[in-house]
């Protein structure tokens, strides 16, 4: 494996939401590293804190959230702690869209319905660079072409509701990439799309990554997509990373009972049809004032009374680049 | 499976069960329970409900709470200001609640009568006193009043009008008319709105198109001129009850449109929903679908809308009666009482004539607060 | 777009016919007609009129026509600008209206303008400071404004001005200008009188719009496209006006048409209390004396006024919302 250069390091990130009902610990001590030109897949069921982690990076979580920890962005040899910046200040705004950009799950709601797609892409340019409008427009058309939108000269003036779901997501990607960021955060970008469109979008993202040389943080609950897209994988559960490793390590030798259960719950081609899929018992609890025990304790089939409910297991390296948070390996 | 593993599984299952009951209760609670639970947290709305309930209780049983009849004229006390209630007499002795006797004089600057208290005449206030006989609800002869001053004294909590009638009595009497007009009017527009909105939303097509135009028309027309025109046609010779109902119906003729629009919109939304299609596939009839599936679906929205429609009716009645086109004397409503306050010069001298208006404002506010609380509560999963 | 406008125009015409029917009913509502009272008067004076003579009179005045014939006769004349005669004023109705209607329109439009100019900025201000002091202050004021009947507000204002300044507010002109021909002084005099009715009529509407604006803006502020724009690096202030405010304006614009009936409605009763030279007091007097051609025509014109307003606000909605512009339906 070649030497890896980090682009973004998250260190012990906590994002809490003080609610009437208690403290919602959406992200509860997450550490992750995203390397240059590589894709980190973040996987977990809904409510595990993967989206809040992503939003914390760009500091677009709601104002009342309480954030601690470090988010280190390596930019031209400089290291900037995003977590220490003012949430709507000049510095973070310069980084948003230019160095780190983001695409979202619902391409319909993610665009403003009353502005044309072109206007919204151009805005992404004009916010950061003082260029003439015509130039921004040309650039927007160029990007639309790059993401495979036919007749981009016309589509640039289309309103979001005039495009199909797949086209909207392509436009979304164009908007995110218009300033060639070094990191693209994709928050479930294909969840709302048909399977065939989904494959096209994934292929597009891979091609663009190779062409433009950027890192991707790919958030999804779909292990199939992860296997397809990611180089490294972080499995999240209830606000914590429970297992981290290369895509090979995670799929070949999963260690955490949760990862194992997740893998057992997806159908695979080539497997004998008689093998039953196993669902994971129970539902993801809401992390409202969670106790300091293993987050998966109450759904785990290998639960050990007195050990699992004693403390939060440490995050241990068990092989090169493979770590797991489980008492079984302590 | 080993017994050990089984035991462990069942114990963790039990633990899970214990933990999730609270959650399950949340998911299993009926829509109304959820609404009630959310509503209870809205303190202002709960307080408003209580106050409004008290107000309605007073209105329903007003004859007992007031010291006089609503038409009784106290000729010696024309345009008297509200009585002040004292606890200690001029020598500082505690006498319980009492009023002083009043002496009337003519003020030659304004040519109005001015009443001054005579500290030598103390009239204590007695509760559950026999006084002027009346008919409770116009049916049962009674004499007991909640409070009355001792023989020879008079008490006018809100003052009197230019004919010497007790404004407190008349305000409570007016409450019965004004508050009930709101409810009866909303009931009529509710029936009309549900019927027409329901037909429009459920059947669609040309029917929908026609009813939609009528609704639009009613919403576009300025209400007050239309109300005025319609109520001016109510023959003045009619009995108070007949007038009361005609005015209420006139108010509802306009009120139903907004409601029908809500019903229709909600129906259209629900008609396309999966559970209605499922019911159709299962072979339910139209009527069954409407009653069993659709009505519960938007009942909460209807209640919110109704709560917010009542004050409009009350304001409408007040406005019409204020102009003399609504409820007419000898019947009393807050609007007819405010009619007496039309003259600025008389209001300047007798500002207490505006008290019924204050009650209108308070009532409308209470209804709005409750409606707001209900609106928040109607979306239980939000 | 053309289809949408055509559809709205047809709706407006249909509504106009409904209006004419209702107005016709209003005119016909009072029991009896002038012939009945004429006959009654003659009989009181001792004259005896035989049936044949009454029939002849009826035919002469078109009183024996069926209601449908009467309606068409009246409506046809109305369209030609012939609205019948006011018995009370002994003048053609159209001449009376010509004097009063311009003031009604002027006052209504200025109030409409004032309502929005005041309410929209306040709505934006309080929405961005949710649960702040100003939010509570305007909530309280708004509730009070909505709960106070406008004639009551007029009474209170008149009372306060009379009591503390010894002046009587009311009318649209001072006595020295009331009958004077138009001059700069008269226009100025009009403006010094206008603000009282504007406040009285506009308060409830202003309070309502502040609430709507606050509500929709808060809704919009939590939408995905706001997060997208923020993730692009758009500054908060610019973002607020460019996206959520722009969106929240739509429901506001679409209610302009409903605001006008409310203002015209309020104008009618407030004008009676403040004795303004508008159609309100004229309608009132006409109704009291059962001068039905005059009363009906006033209701008709007020209806037409709001009908035009609604139609224009529908058109305005196309301008602000591209979704309607392109799809051709609401």
* Largest interface, Cβ cutoff 8 Å: B-C, 43 and 50 residues
CATH class of the largest domain in chain B: Mainly Alpha
Question: Outline of chain C, from the CA principal axes?
Answer: globular
- Percent of residues in beta strands of chain C: under 5%
**What is the count of distinct domains of chain C?**
1
Number of helical elements of chain C: 16
Shape of chain B: elongated
The total count of strands of chain C amounts to 2
Q: What would you call the structural class of chain C?
A: mainly alpha
Characterise the protein shown here:
The complex is a heterotrimer of chains A (330), B (382) and C (330). By secondary structure, chain A is α/β, with parallel strands linked by helices. Chain A has eleven helices and twelve strands. In chain A, the strands form two sheets. An eight-stranded mixed β-sheet of chain A has the order 6-7-8-3-9-10-12-11, sandwiched between helices. Chain B has 382 residues and is of the alpha+beta class. Chain B is built from 13 helices and four strands. In chain B, helix 3 crosses helix 13 and helix 5 packs antiparallel against helix 10. By secondary structure, chain C is mainly alpha-helical. Chain C has a single domain, classed as MetI-like fold (Orthogonal Bundle). The chains are: A alpha/beta (330), B alpha+beta (382), C mainly alpha (330). Chains B and C meet through helix 6, helix 7, helix 10, helix 12 and helix 13 of B and helix 1, helix 6, helix 7, helix 13 and helix 14 of C.
Summarize the SSE layout with pairings.
The complex is a heterotrimer of chains A (330), B (382) and C (330).
Chain A: E1 6-19, E2 22-35, E3 39-43, H1 50-57, E4 66-75, E5 78-81, H2 90-95, E6 100-103, H3 107-110, H4 117-128, H5 133-146, H6 152-155, H7 165-177, E7 183-187, H8 195-212, E8 215-220, H9 223-229, E9 232-237, E10 240-246, H10 247-252, H11 257-264, E11 316-319, E12 322-324
Chain B: H1 3-28, H2 31-41, H3 43-60, H4 62-65, E1 86-88, E2 94-107, E3 112-136, E4 140-149, H5 167-203, H6 205-220, H7 223-232, H8 240-271, H9 274-281, H10 286-323, H11 334-339, H12 344-349, H13 355-377
Helix pairs in contact in B: 2-13, 3-5, 3-13, 5-6, 5-8, 5-10, 6-8, 7-8, 8-10, 9-10, 10-13
Chain C: H1 2-28, H2 34-44, H3 51-61, H4 67-79, E1 85-86, E2 91-92, H5 93-128, H6 133-147, H7 150-165, H8 175-178, H9 184-221, H10 224-232, H11 236-242, H12 244-254, H13 256-274, H14 279-288, H15 292-320, H16 322-327
Antiparallel strand pairs in C: 1-2
């Amino acid at each position: 494996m070649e030497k890896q250069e980090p682009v973004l390091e998250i260190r012990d990130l906590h994002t809490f939401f003080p609610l009437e009902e208690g403290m919602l610990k959406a992200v509860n001590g997450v550490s992750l590293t995203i390397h240059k030109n590589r894709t980190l897949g973040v996987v977990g069921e809904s409510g595990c804190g993967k989206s809040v982690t992503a939003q914390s990076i760009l500091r677009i979580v709601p104002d009342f959230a309480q954030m601690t920890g470090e988010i280190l962005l390596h930019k031209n040899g400089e290291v900037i702690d995003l977590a220490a910046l003012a949430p709507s200040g000049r510095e973070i705004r310069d980084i948003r869209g230019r160095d780190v950009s983001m695409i979202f799950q619902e391409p319909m709601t993610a665009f403003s319905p009353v502005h044309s797609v072109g206007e919204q892409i151009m805005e992404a340019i004009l916010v950061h660079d003082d260029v003439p409008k015509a130039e921004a427009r040309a650039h927007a058309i160029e990007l639309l072409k790059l993401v495979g939108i036919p007749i981009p000269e016309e589509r640039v003036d289309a309103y979001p509701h005039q495009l199909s779901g797949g086209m909207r997501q392509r436009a979304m990607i164009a908007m995110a990439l218009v300033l060639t960021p070094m990191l693209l955060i994709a928050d479930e970008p294909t969840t709302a799309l048909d399977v065939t469109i989904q494959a096209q979008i994934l292929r597009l993202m891979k091609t663009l990554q190779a062409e433009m040389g950027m890192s991707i943080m790919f958030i999804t609950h779909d292990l199939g997509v992860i296997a397809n897209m990611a180089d490294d994988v972080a499995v999240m559960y209830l606000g914590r990373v429970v297992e981290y490793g290369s895509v090979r390590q995670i799929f070949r030798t999963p260690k955490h009972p949760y990862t194992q259960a997740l893998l057992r719950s997806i159908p695979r081609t080539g497997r004998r049809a008689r093998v039953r899929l196993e669902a994971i018992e129970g539902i993801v609890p809401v992390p409202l004032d969670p106790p300091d025990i293993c987050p998966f304790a109450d759904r785990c089939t290998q639960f050990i009374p007195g050990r699992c409910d004693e403390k939060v297991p440490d995050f241990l390296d068990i092989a090169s680049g493979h770590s797991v948070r489980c008492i079984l390996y302590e | 499976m080993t017994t050990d593993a089984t035991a462990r599984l069942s114990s963790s299952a039990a633990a899970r069960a214990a933990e999730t009951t609270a959650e399950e209760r949340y998911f299993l609670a009926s829509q109304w329970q959820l609404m009630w639970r959310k509503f209870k947290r809205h303190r202002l709305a709960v307080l408003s409900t209580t106050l409004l309930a008290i107000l309605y209780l007073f209105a329903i049983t007003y004859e007992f709470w007031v010291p006089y009849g609503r038409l009784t004229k106290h000729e010696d006390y024309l345009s008297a200001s509200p009585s002040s209630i004292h606890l200690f007499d001029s020598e500082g002795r505690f006498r319980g609640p009492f009023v002083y006797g009043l002496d009337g004089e003519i003020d030659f600057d304004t040519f109005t009568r001015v009443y001054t208290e005579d500290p030598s005449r103390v009239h204590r206030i007695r509760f559950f006193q026999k006084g002027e006989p009346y008919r409770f609800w116009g049916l049962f002869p009674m004499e007991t009043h909640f409070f009355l001053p001792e023989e020879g004294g008079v008490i006018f909590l809100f003052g009197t009008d230019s004919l010497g009638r007790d404004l407190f009595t008349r305000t409570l009497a007016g409450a019965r008319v004004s508050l009930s007009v709101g409810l009866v009017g909303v009931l009529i527009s509710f029936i009309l709105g549900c019927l027409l909105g329901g037909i429009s939303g459920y059947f669609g097509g040309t029917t929908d198109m026609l009813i939609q135009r009528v609704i639009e028309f009613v919403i576009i027309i300025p209400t007050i001129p239309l109300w005025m025109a319609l109520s001016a046609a109510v023959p003045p010779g009619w009995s108070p009850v007949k007038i009361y109902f005609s005015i209420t119906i006139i108010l509802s003729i306009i009120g139903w449109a907004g409601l029908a629009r809500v019903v229709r919109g909600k129906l259209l939304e629900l008609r396309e929903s999966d559970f209605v299609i499922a019911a159709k596939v299962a072979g339910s009839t139209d009527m069954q679908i409407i009653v069993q599936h659709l009505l519960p679906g938007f009942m909460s929205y209807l209640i919110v809308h109704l709560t917010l429609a009542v004050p409009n009716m009350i304001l409408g009645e007040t406005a019409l009666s204020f102009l003399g086109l609504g409820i007419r004397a000898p019947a009393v409503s807050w609007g007819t009482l405010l009619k007496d306050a039309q003259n600025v010069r008389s209001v300047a001298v007798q500002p207490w004539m505006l008290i019924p208006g204050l009650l209108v404002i308070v009532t409308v506010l209470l209804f709005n607060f409750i409606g707001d609380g209900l609106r928040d509560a109607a979306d239980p999963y939000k | 777009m053309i289809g949408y406008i055509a559809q709205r125009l047809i709706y407006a015409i249909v509504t106009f016919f409904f209006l004419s029917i209702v107005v016709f009913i209003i005119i016909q509502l009072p029991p009896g007609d002038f012939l009945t009272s004429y006959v009654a008067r003659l009989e009181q004076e001792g004259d005896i009129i035989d049936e044949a003579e009454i029939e002849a009179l009826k035919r002469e005045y078109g009183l024996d026509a069926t209601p449908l014939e009467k309606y068409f006769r009246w409506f046809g004349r109305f369209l030609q600008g012939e609205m019948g005669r006011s018995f009370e004023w002994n003048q053609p109705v159209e001449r009376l209206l010509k004097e009063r209607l311009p003031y009604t329109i002027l006052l209504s439009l200025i109030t409409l303008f004032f309502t929005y100019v005041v309410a929209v900025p306040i709505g934006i201000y309080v929405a961005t400071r949710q649960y702040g002091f100003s939010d509570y202050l305007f909530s309280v004021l708004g509730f009070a404004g909505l709960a106070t009947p406008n004639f009551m507000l007029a009474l209170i204002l008149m009372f306060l001005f009379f009591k503390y300044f010894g002046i009587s507010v009311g009318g649209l002109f001072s006595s020295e200008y009331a009958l004077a021909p138009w001059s700069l002084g008269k226009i100025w005099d009009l403006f010094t009188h206008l603000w009282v009715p504007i406040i009285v009529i506009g308060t409830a509407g202003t309070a309502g719009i502040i609430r709507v604006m606050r509500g929709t803006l808060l809704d919009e502020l939590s939408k995905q496209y706001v997060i997208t724009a923020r993730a692009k690096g758009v500054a908060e202030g610019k973002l607020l006006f460019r996206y959520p405010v722009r969106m929240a304006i739509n429901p506001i614009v679409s209610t302009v048409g409903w605001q006008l009936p409310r203002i015209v409605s309020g104008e009618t009763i407030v004008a009676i209390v403040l004795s303004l030279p508008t159609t309100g007091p004229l309608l009132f007097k006409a109704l009291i004396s059962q001068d039905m051609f005059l009363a009906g025509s006033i209701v008709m014109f007020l209806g037409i006024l709001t009908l035009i307003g609604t139609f224009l606000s529908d058109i305005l909605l196309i301008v602000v919302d591209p979704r309607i512009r392109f799809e051709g339906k609401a």
